[in-house]
Amino acid sequence: MRTPVFTGNCVAIATPFDANGNINYDAFGRLIDNQIEGGVDAICVCGTTGESATMTIREHIAVVEYCVKRVNHRVKVIAGAGSNDTSAAVYLSLHAQDSGADALLHVTPYYNKCSQAGLVKHYEYIADRTELPIILYNVPSRTGVSFTAESYQILAQNPKINGVKEASGNFSLLAHTRHLCGDDFYVWSGNDDQVVPMMSLGAKGVISVASNIIPGVMREMTHLCLDNDFQAASKLQIEYMDLIDALFCDVNPIPVKEALNLMGMEAGPVRLPLCELSEKNHERLRAAMAAKGLL
User: Which residues contact 210 (CB under 8 A, 6 or more apart)?
Assistant: First the structure.
């Protein structure tokens, strides 16, 4: 039986940039250390929140290598390696493997809008060419394609495919997946506002945007669920809904990088075509953070 890559809270870590748009490794190192001190169980680098879509291949590889070295085995490192080009996904996977990452996160191929058969072939091709466990990433609002439970069932037979970061918001899909795939195809929430209900259906934790600013809260929420104290976990989920909603008042990671900047974490700007928050959303975010004592 497979063991999950992690249980609990994994931060989908932001990538700080300087005023010139270059990667700010000093700030990145401090952010990594802050997350580990906050109790995260794992770090996911070069995912959506890390702005991998606007990184060059060279930058992507360098950021993964830096993260692995900075973490230095204190927690698990999951390297984003997804692409709409299967060969590019393999290339990024092999570099992540060589860097010492513990696992891979592979988003569904975007723009191509492949069939379910194409999805299965894509992931089997990657799994055949890397030794690391793979976490699938289902986020149809961004990619235009979603897994079916039946495709999960096929991929669950591959020992290198550990499970899925499920960000479709589709609880029927989650229930059918759990029914068809058994207990050793693992699911993690990809939505901070759905952690507790997903874990009540068997998810093992969350890959979290909110953890960038509240790592301790997200750890507590997930570990309460793992301890079957869903009543206490639900109270936390509800208590932090205003803040979580504010972190998604614009396209991720625009609000969370602004939140990090407000906290003095020097996350810097987002890269085009993303742009800064509107004044209205800035004030909404600031108010939500102030209400939780984060400013």
Answer: 192, 217, 218, 240, 243, 244, 247, 256
